[in-house]
C-alpha cells in the first residue's frame, strides 16, 4: 500500500485562531484534537485536511509553500479577498505588478497566500485550493510524484506539478533559482502510512526514492522524513512564481 496525502500542516503559536481564519476563508468545518491540535476538513472526504499544530519557532523570511485559491468570476475573487480581510488577513506587497490579476494576502500569522483571478486554465476544476505552490527543483516534483504515485501534470522549463488521479488541488514546484533554506518549515506535507509492517516497507520505499529519516513525529509511531514541501522566497515582480496556466 502507498502512503497518501493526509494533511497540509501549519505550525503556529495559535492553532485555534489560525484554524478559525482558514475555516472562514475556505468554508471548511473544523475539529479539535489533543494538545491544541486543530484541523479543518474539506467538504469532499477524499481531499486532504489542513492541520494547525502548536509551534513557537521564530519566523525567518517568507514561507516556502503557499496556497493559490481559485475564483469563479471577478466578483468571487473580490468576495474571497474581502472575507479574508474581515477575518484578520492583510494585503501583502511582494513586488507584484499592477497588471497582475492575482491578489497577494497574508493570514493573521503572516503566512502568504494568493487569490488567483478567474479564468486560469491551469487551475480549472481543482476546487477552492487550486494549488499548493512550492519552492523546489524538478527533482523535488519527481520525488513527490513517485512518493504519492500522482502523475506529473506539468513538466516544462524545470517547473513541475502533480495532481491526484482523482483530481483536486495541484502541488507545483517553481524550479530554479531555489533560495537557500533557513529556519524551520512552517508549512509542510503529512502523509498517512499503512499500518504495521506495510508502513515500515513504505518508509523504506520513500527513503529509497530520496527521503531521509529525521526522527520521531507526532503521535504513536510517528515518523518524520525529508524532503518536505518548499515554496520560493520570490523575486520582485515574480511572486507567486507564475503558475503554468498564466503562460497559456
From TrEMBL:
Residues 4-118 form the VOC domain. Residues 233-248 have a biased composition (Basic residues). Coiled coil: none annotated. Gene3D superfamilies: 2,3-Dihydroxybiphenyl 1,2-Dioxygenase, domain 1. InterPro entries: Glyas_Bleomycin-R_OHBP_Dase, Glyoxalase_6, VOC_core. Residues 212-248 are annotated as: Disordered. Pfam families: Glyoxalase_6 (PF18029). This is VOC family protein. It comes from Streptomyces desertarenae.
Amino acid at each position: 500500500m502507498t502512503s497518501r496525502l493526509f494533511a497540509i500542516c501549519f505550525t503556529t503559536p495559535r492553532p485555534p485562531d489560525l484554524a478559525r481564519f482558514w475555516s472562514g476563508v475556505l468554508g471548511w468545518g473544523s475539529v479539535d484534537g489533543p494538545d491544541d491540535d486543530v484541523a479543518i476538513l474539506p467538504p469532499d472526504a477524499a481531499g486532504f485536511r489542513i492541520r494547525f499544530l502548536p509551534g513557537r519557532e521564530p519566523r525567518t523570511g517568507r514561507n516556502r509553500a503557499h496556497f493559490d485559491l481559485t475564483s469563479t468570476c471577478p466578483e468571487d475573487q473580490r468576495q474571497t479577498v474581502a472575507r479574508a480581510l474581515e477575518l484578520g488577513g492583510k494585503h501583502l506587497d511582494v513586488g507584484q505588478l499592477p497588471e497582475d490579476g492575482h491578489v497577494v494576502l497574508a493570514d493573521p500569522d503572516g503566512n502568504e497566500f494568493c487569490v488567483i483571478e478567474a479564468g486560469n486554465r491551469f487551475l480549472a476544476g481543482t476546487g477552492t485550493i487550486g494549488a499548493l505552490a512550492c519552492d523546489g527543483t524538478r527533482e523535488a516534483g519527481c520525488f513527490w510524484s513517485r512518493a504519492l504515485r500522482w502523475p506529473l501534470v506539468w513538466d516544462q522549463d524545470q517547473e513541475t506539478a502533480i495532481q491526484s488521479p482523482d483530481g483536486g488541488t495541484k502541488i507545483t514546484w517553481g524550479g530554479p533559482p531555489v533560495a537557500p533554506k533557513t529556519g524551520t518549515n512552517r508549512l509542510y506535507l503529512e502523509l498517512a502510512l499503512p499500518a504495521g509492517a506495510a508502513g515500515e516497507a513504505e518508509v523504506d520505499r520513500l527513503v529509497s526514492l530520496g527521503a531521509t529519516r529525521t526522527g520521531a513525529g507526532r503521535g504513536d509511531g510517528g515518523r518524520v522524513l525529508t524532503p518536505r514541501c518548499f515554496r520560493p522566497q520570490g523575486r520582485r515582480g515574480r511572486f507567486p512564481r507564475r503558475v503554468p496556466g498564466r503562460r497559456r
